[in-house]
Write a structure and sequence with these properties.
This protein has eleven helices and ten strands. By secondary structure, the protein is α/β, with parallel strands linked by helices. The structure holds acetoacetyl-coenzyme A.
Length: 291
């Protein structure tokens, strides 16, 4: 399967990172969002991140310019019709994703591979509601996309070998590493990472350590680049809670019970960096623990 044009639905944090790495690797990118403002913000973010890469000597000015030229933005899903591969990176809500696939499918070529960047929703269930479950799979990037080396590739029950190999070829061309995961709740990375973050919140909740001592323990004691609470703020506490709920519901094991303190932060609208407050308060010059 020859993949040259890649459609990306959703120009948020993940969508703009995916557009960046795909265009840098030489793919033609069609970046879609319902909001013109989100599309402009995405192009500005990509330009800023490419400039930083140029500044650090990782990308040449000519490659930066060619990368930006390869990204075309559109508010119309129909314009993604010519894509060889589509990666949906919209809001992490099943009804939203389903509605996008319904609108998009009539415009696609029969050969187009359809994928989702979902971090936890069942690939098999999403696939079953499309016209091409055998050409559907999970294509899960990590945040920040331009920096993180891993891409999880998740096969639904019906995904065929050609589809999987074509997606693996794309990951290779990006210079990233693919991990193949079966379609069970939260796949591999989040199955392991989120219970660790949830346990860090329990450690705080039970008064075993403060925000700072928990984060420095894992940074200095286990060589993690970020402490678990800092990382939770980076990912978004609403996302962390949603993934814990997927694990709890999907695997029906009490060991995945979301910590009540995590729920409380989400109820307060303290969602981490994106809302300026989470386990840290980001409104000043330096982040300050909120407990
Ligand atoms: N876009 C592009 N480049 C970025 C970037 C961004 N958003 N953020 C940082 N960078 C680049 C920097 O330019 C820098 O590049 P050089 O190596 O060329 O200098 C490099 O990344 C390191 O950045 P910094 O020196 O500014 O900062 P740092 O050393 O503290 O690293 C970090 C920042 C890479 C984010 C690091 O803290 C880290 O790895 N944190 C953990 C991230 C992580 O675990 N992500 C996975 C989350 S889970 C997930 O995504 C799955 C899910 O479904 C929820």
């Amino acid at each position: 399967m020859d993949i040259q044009t890649i459609g990306i639905v959703g120009a948020g944090q993940m969508g703009n990172g995916i557009a960046h790495v795909m265009a840098l690797a030489g793919y033609d990118v069609l970046l879609n969002d319902v909001s013109a403002e989100a599309l402009q913000k995405a192009v500005d973010t990509i330009t800023g991140n490419l400039d930083r890469q140029v500044g650090r000597g990782k990308v040449t000015e000519a490659d930066r310019d060619a990368t930006l030229k390869r990204i075309v933005t559109t508010q119309t899903l129909a314009e993604l019709g010519q894509s060889d591969l589509v990666i949906e990176a919209a809001t992490e809500r099943e009804t939203v994703k389903q509605a996008i696939f319904e609108d998009l499918i009539p415009h696609l070529k029969p050969t187009t591979i359809l994928t989702s960047n979902t971090s936890s929703i069942s690939i098999t269930r999403l696939a079953s509601r499309t016209d091409r479950p055998e050409k559907f799979m999970g294509f899960h990037f990590m945040n920040p996309v331009p920096v993180m080396q891993l891409v999880e590739l998740i096969r639904g029950i019906a995904t065929d070998k050609e589809t999987f190999e074509a997606c693996r070829g794309v990951v290779d061309k990006l210079g990233k590493t693919a991990a193949s995961a079966e379609d069970f709740p939260a796949f591999i990375v989040n199955r392991i990472l989120m219970p660790m973050i949830n346990e860090a919140v329990y450690t705080l909740y039970e008064g075993v350590g403060s925000v700072e001592s928990i984060d420095s323990s894992l940074k200095l004691g286990a060589n993690h680049p970020m402490g678990p609470l800092e990382l939770a703020d980076f990912i978004g506490l609403d996302t962390c809670l949603a993934i814990m709920n997927v694990l709890h519901d999907g695997l029906a094991d009490t060991k995945y019970r979301p910590c009540p303190l995590l729920t409380k932060y989400v109820e307060a609208g303290w969602l981490g960096r994106k809302s300026q407050r989470g386990f840290y308060d980001y409104r000043g010059d330096v982040p300050v623990p909120t407990r």
